[in-house]
From TrEMBL:
It catalyses: Typically cleaves a -Gly-|-Phe- bond to release an N-terminal, basic peptide of 5-8 residues from type IV prepilin, and then N-methylates the new N-terminal amino group, the methyl donor being S-adenosyl-L-methionine. It comes from the Bacteria. The chain crosses the membrane at residues 12-34, 146-163, 175-192, 198-220, 232-265, 277-300. The keyword Ion transport does not apply. It is found in: Cell inner membrane; Cell membrane. Keywords: Cell inner membrane, Cell membrane, Hydrolase, Membrane, Methyltransferase, Multifunctional enzyme, Protease, Transferase, Transmembrane, Transmembrane helix. Its EC number is 2.1.1.-, 3.4.23.43. This is Prepilin leader peptidase/N-methyltransferase. InterPro entries: Peptidase_A24A_bac, Prepilin_IV_endopep_pep, Prepilin_pept_A24_N, Prepilin_peptidase/N-MTase. It comes from Shewanella colwelliana. It is a multi-pass membrane protein. Plays an essential role in type IV pili and type II pseudopili formation by proteolytically removing the leader sequence from substrate proteins and subsequently monomethylating the alpha-amino group of the newly exposed N-terminal phenylalanine. Residues 154-261 form the Prepilin type IV endopeptidase peptidase domain. Residues 21-142 form the Prepilin peptidase A24 N-terminal domain.
């Protein structure tokens, strides 16, 4: 293992290429997480609701009771991140293993199902390519170090969160909370920042957006963001300390505002419609992880 690490340190482009291949493969699994985790969560919520109603015998209108009794999706009863295997949503034909190869599988199929020729969303290879490129760059930037290992794990989580938030306006605790605790644990040895700065960063990340949320709600009576956004910013505070939080908030706000205006101008959304903020926090946090100190130092040098 030591010899392998030394070899990768001597040939950073080779290490980046290997990291790209590995991460693109994981990106294929992240597509599964993005699609299936929300379905699993909705099923769990329905079960909890039905259990509550059965336990307390709460009377409900017949229309609502019938909705709660119906399945919320058309997927098999046993449905998780592993079972059932991948299949075409249109014709239900099982997808062959070689068609599941990251990037290559989609290209071999020409972006269509091998059985019914239904178009396969380009999002699948995009997620795989994005995951591979991001982790490949991390390999080049950090080299074969523990920082690379943990930054890669964080990147996987951020890509899954981004996809789910774009689809469902949801940042699952099943991903954000483990990332939060992992950030605190790895910084016990000062992997990215000191333990004190990590703890303060986690609290400051959560409380900063929590304060904005309640201030906006008291002024307007509306909820401007979700609790998942607080937790995601707390993740970055736990990983990189409180010092980078202002930069992350600024970057995410600017990017979110620009994208929102572009969507309104292009009539993709109406003014006042909610847009997910999690992807902008995730992107800003990832940028801060790589170039945060340089950006802050550049800004301070211009003052």
């Amino acid at each position: 293992m030591t010899q392998f690490i030394q070899l990768m340190a001597q040939f950073p482009f080779l290490f980046a290429a290997l990291a790209f291949i590995f991460a693109a493969t994981i990106g294929s699994f992240l597509n599964v997480v993005i699609h299936r985790l929300p379905v699993m969560m909705k099923r769990e919520w329905q079960q909890e609701c039905n259990q509550y109603l059965d336990e307390y015998h709460q009377p409900l209108p017949k229309e609502l009771a019938s909705k709660l009794a119906k399945p919320i999706d058309d997927y098999p009863e046993k449905y998780n991140l592993v079972v059932p295997g991948s299949a075409c949503p249109k014709c239900k034909a099982n997808i062959k293993p070689w068609h599941n190869l990251p990037l290559l599988g989609w290209l071999m199929l020409g972006g269509k199902c091998a059985s019914c020729k239904t178009a396969i969303s380009a999002r699948y290879p995009i997620v795989e390519a994005l995951t591979g490129i991001a982790v490949g760059y991390l390999a080049y930037h950090f080299g074969p170090t523990w920082q690379f290992v943990f930054a890669t794990a964080l990147t996987f989580g951020l890509i899954a969160l981004t996809g789910i938030d774009l689809d469902e306006m949801l940042l699952p605790d099943q991903i954000t909370l483990p990332l939060l605790w992992l950030g605190l644990l790895i910084n016990l040895n000062g992997t990215f920042t000191s333990p004190t700065e990590a703890i303060i960063g986690a609290a400051a990340g959560y409380m900063s957006l929590w304060s904005v949320f309640w201030g906006f709600k008291l002024l307007t009576g509306k909820e401007g963001m979700g609790y998942g956004d607080f937790k995601l910013l707390a993740v970055f505070g736990a990983w990189f300390g409180w010092q980078l939080l202002p930069l992350i908030i600024l970057l995410s706000s600017v990017v979110g505002a620009v994208v929102g205006v572009l969507l309104i101008v292009n009539k993709r959304i109406n003014s006042g419609n909610p847009i997910p903020f999690g992807p902008y926090i995730a992107l800003a946090g990832w940028i801060a992880m790589i170039w945060g100190e340089q950006i802050v130092n550049w800004y301070l040098s211009t003052l």
